[in-house]
Amino acid sequence: MGISSAGETGEGVPNELPETLKAFRQFETWLENGAQQEEPLPTVPPNSAPLAWQGLDRWNTHENSETRDSPYPLVPLRDVLEERREFVHVDGDLGDWQAITIKFSGEVVPRERDKPFKGAMFAAYPGDLVFSKIDARNGAVGVVPESMARVVVTSEYPIFIPCAEKLRSAYLRHLLRAEHFRGELQRKASGTSGRKCVTPDGFQSLEIPLPSLDEQDDLVADFARADEMEREAARLRQTAWTAFESALFTNETDSNVGCGERSEPHHSGGR
């Protein structure tokens, strides 16, 4: 079930979440009142879609065409990213330089390693975009989180700095995880079978929708609100299941009655 932000989607599709939460709360009340028959619970509107990110969903690359549609300007990444080439030199261990792993989900996580890498090493900092040449087509491209002050990588991990006057790191982080972006990355991979990679030039040639900075901030804020509402919906769902099971089993003695044994029937009211 998709979770929408407050308001309309812009295409006449109502926001589903308030009705979803209302349904959960009514279900809880129904159970608390003894699960008596009452008015039907409201249904969730079909075909709902996230409010602000819906425009990005229309960013399609047709299979046999380079034509794209978007309500926002399409610009190549080279126009909004600057390559970082800062060498790292250490004496002995890496010290406070943090090695990383980029998951296929795009998450950048610490890697346990103290010894320096062989060959040249390069620095990355919070907000920088980093990707694996070999595994970018599988989703290994992400943004360094604020929790990692000094990151070190090899030459197999190109590093880029988002242009602050054009691109928010938070917006970029979400965009990198979009299915349409990954599809574009897969098409940019080149080389022999099993060793296909995405080059820095190929990566920078990718085009992305570029809203204004204010619009990017709004999109990220909408996404954060949707995430929070989804967590709240999950909590309510779990509460509803707990209430449902509690209504079925009133105590441990009844739930543990063995085969061949009979428990006394329970009645919710007198005859």
Structural class: alpha+beta
Spans of at least 5 consecutive residues with low confidence: 1-14, 37-55, 57-65, 265-271
Strand arrangement within the widest β-sheet reads 2-9-6-7
CATH architectural arrangement of the largest domain: Alpha-Beta Complex
Q: Could you tell me the number of beta strands?
A: 10
**What is the chain-wise order of helices and strands?**
HHEEEEEEEEEHHHEHH
CATH class group of the largest domain: Alpha Beta
Number of helices: 7
The proportion of strand residues reads 5-15%
Assembly state of the chains shown = single chain
Q: What's the Cα radius of gyration?
A: 26 Å
Mean of pLDDT = 77
Number of domains: 2
Largest sheet: 4 strands, antiparallel
Notes on the protein architecture:
Helices cover 31% and strands 13% of the residues. It is α+β, with helices and mostly antiparallel strands. The chain has two domains: 1-72 and 214-248, no CATH class; 74-210, Alpha-Beta Complex (Adenine-n6-DNA-methyltransferase TaqI, Chain A, domain 2), CATH 3.90.220.20. The strands form three sheets. A four-stranded antiparallel β-sheet has the order 2-9-6-7, covered by helices on one side. It has a four-stranded mixed β-sheet with strand order 4-3-8-5, with no helix packed on it. A hairpin with a 5-residue loop joins strand 3 (98-102) and strand 4. Helix 1 runs parallel beside helix 6 (213-248). It is globular.
